[in-house]
Specification:
Strand content: 15-25%
CATH superfamily: NAD(P)-binding Rossmann-like Domain
Radius of gyration: 17 Å
CATH topology: Rossmann fold
Helix content: 25-40%
Bound molecules: NADP nicotinamide-adenine-dinucleotide phosphate
Distance between the termini: 43 Å
Number of strands: 9
Strand order of the largest sheet: 3-2-1-4-5-6-8
Number of domains: 1
Structural class: alpha/beta
């Protein structure tokens, strides 16, 4: 049975992707710090409690999976954190957590699993953001981390394409029905054409996996029809 590993599988976009991977028949290992509100129960789904910013926890989790399964077919680097505001209003710990979650963890996890992904002609699917593609005020660190992930994916593809590895970056626009904006000063507006949904990103993942051998979708941008946000005081 083909094996998928996805970070941030407990909620939001990652949970929706994990559900689709299970429906597509992948034995799916999902990493997150807690699964209390995760409603995915399937014999194909294995929740693994892991803080991906703790690199020893992350590498132990990865090696346990490959020791048991001896294969990895799909890696989805989905977990991410966004903290927005003027640069000098961010705490040092805000900057640090974004870099460690959005950049260091996917770089390290991909590196740890690359041997197995080469063996399976597997997929690396990175969930970046439209923030990787444009300049925006009050999002310098987040945008820079997502640009780094995007460029990492493109470079990794050049490095591994001859070995059969398929690398895709998906750039979702502002996404409703997630906890992503919980601690931020803005959130998706209520108008349905101003946000996408986690299922739209999961559809994109399945589309990537359904390409004929020899075809690689390098980048997908999923945008809302209109741009609109709601400003509000962040919850503590
Ligand atoms: N929502 C949007 O508008 C939007 C738009 C573009 C791109 N994205 C990107 O899409 C991805 C998913 O975001 P989302 O909207 O689904 O956010 P979310 O609802 O906040 O979910 C984030 C997921 O990442 C996990 N996570 C965060 N830090 C972690 C850590 N240190 N170790 C392990 N898991 C961790 C969370 O699980 P635990 O908290 O249980 O650990 C959760 O499963 C992110 O990379 C985000 O940057 C989101």
């Amino acid at each position: 049975m083909e094996v998928a590993i996805i970070t941030g599988a407990s909620r939001g976009i990652g949970l929706e992707i994990a559900k689709r991977l299970v429906s597509a028949g992948y034995e799916t290992f999902g990493l997150a710090r807690q699964f209390d509100t995760c409603d995915l129960t399937s014999e194909l789904f294995h929740p693994i409690v892991c803080d991906i910013t703790n690199l020893s926890e992350l590498t132990v989790a990865a090696s346990q999976i490959v020791r048991e399964k001896k294969r990895v077919d799909v890696l989805v680097n989905n977990a991410g954190v966004g903290i927005f505001g003027p640069l000098d209003s961010l705490k040092i710990s805000d900057i640090d957590i974004m870099v460690r979650t959005n950049v260091t963890a996917p770089f390290v996890l991909t590196s740890e699993l690359l041997f197995w992904l080469r063996k399976s002609s597997g997929y690396v699917i990175n969930i970046a953001s439209t923030a990787a593609l444009k300049t925006q005020a009050q999002g310098a660190i987040y945008s820079a981390t997502k640009s780094a992930l995007l460029h990492f994916g493109d470079c990794l593809f050049e490095e591994t394409r001859k070995q059969g590895v398929r690398v895709t970056t998906i750039c979702p626009d502002i996404t409703g029905e997630t906890d992503f904006y919980q601690h931020n000063y803005f959130a998706p507006s209520e108008n349905e054409d101003t946000f996408i949904l986690p299922g739209c990103v999961a559809d994109a993942v399945i589309n990537v996996l359904n390409q004929r051998p020899g075809t690689v979708v390098s980048q997908i941008v999923v945008q809302a029809q209109r741009f609109q946000i709601t400003k509000r005081p962040p919850s503590s």
